[in-house]
Amino acid sequence: MKKVIVTGATGFLGKHVVGELEKRNYEVIPLNSKNCDMTDFSKLNKFIFQNRPDYIVHLAALCGGIGMNRKFPADFNIVNTMMGINLFEACKEYKKIFDDSPKIVCLGSVCAYPKYTPVPFKEDYLWNGYPEETNAPYGLAKRMLLVQLNAYKEQYGLKGCYLLPANLYGKHDHFDLEDSHVIPALIRKFHEAMLDKKREVLLWGSGSASREFLYVKDAAFGIINAMEKYDGSLPINLGSSKEIKILDLAYLIKDKVGFEGKIVWDYNMPDGQPKRCLDTSRAKELFDFQARWSFEDGIEETIKWYIENREDILRGLK
Predict the structure, then answer these.
(1) Which of 73, 109, 164, 243 would suit a FRET pair with 138, their CA atoms being 20 to 30 Å apart?
(2) Are 267 and 212 in contact (CB under 8 A)?
(3) 8 Å CB contact between 280 and 241
């Protein structure tokens, strides 16, 4: 069995990537903040040397919604940058000893794209401008992973690839209203408003921004496909190639949850980047990836999972 270290293995995406790897008969070595601090080079270096992986899937990130990005911009930049630097340095040192290195799959973010990228986002547009201001420190740290990876490939012969997933959603998502992303936040807000018999729900912005969403199981499938089949230097988008306005998304989730009150928009709060939708033709061509879940089916599965696990979710947030 080939061995795969998964950083962020206990996180939202990590749980699904681990499941997909186990389906394909890999030995998974989970790395999380409890067993290895990736911002500490010596600890990360020791972890990699001890486990001698064939692959490393780097999912670990300090991330959150607009509110968290605005509150902790320096943390979001420096922590994500440090994890990347330490990972590549450790793999460089590993290669000196064993004359080979694990293949690294790096997860970037759609936040890395410039604010006014033409839709659909093509990978070639990545360097055509500055990211949207509310998440620029995070987006630039994730963009830097691509620079780091290709530099270490060129100078030290490391192996790896870089993927840019659309906004993810699905089972095991994070439902803390302080730092969750839009879909889990909407599900929780509407469900709690329904239980509390509220007449309205207040949402940030105008609802005019649009986003593309990828069901997390599709993302895990694409990540492992890339791990097995792609070792190039070009960044690769992973997405569904479909976008939806936040306003339409809110009404869809409102109806699926069963909340009968009204939505009130707080126009004083930011919308974030105006539009996000990815061109995924490169992923299809290079490692045969395309999304399999429909958006409505994915939303229904996510709502169902949240309701069934709500008490455990809220208990874990206390």
Answers:
(1) 243
(2) no
(3) yes
Is 125 assigned a catalytic role? no
Q: The tokens 């709500």 sit on which residue? A: 310
- What would the pLDDT profile of 177-195 be if each residue is shown by its tens digit? 877 889 999 999 999 999 9
* CATH number assigned to the domain with residue range 3-317, chosen from the 4 options 3.30.470.20, 3.40.50.300, 3.40.50.720, 3.40.630.30: 3.40.50.720
Q: Retrieve residue 92's tokens.
A: 């460089």
The pLDDT of residue 68 = 85
Q: So where are the chain's domains?
A: 3-317
pLDDT at 274: 85
Phi, psi of 310 (to 5 degrees): -55, -45
Identified catalytic residue from 26, 94, 138, 230: 138
- Render 87-107 in DSSP notation, one character per residue: HHHHHHHHHHHHS---EEEEE
- Which residues, 6 or more positions from 77, have their beta carbon under 8 angstroms from its beta carbon? 137, 138, 140, 141
Per-residue DSSP letter, 152: H
Q: What is the pTM of this model?
A: 0.92
**Three-state secondary structure string covering 220-265:** HHHHHHHHHHCCCCCCEEECCCCEEEHHHHHHHHHHHHCCCCEEEE
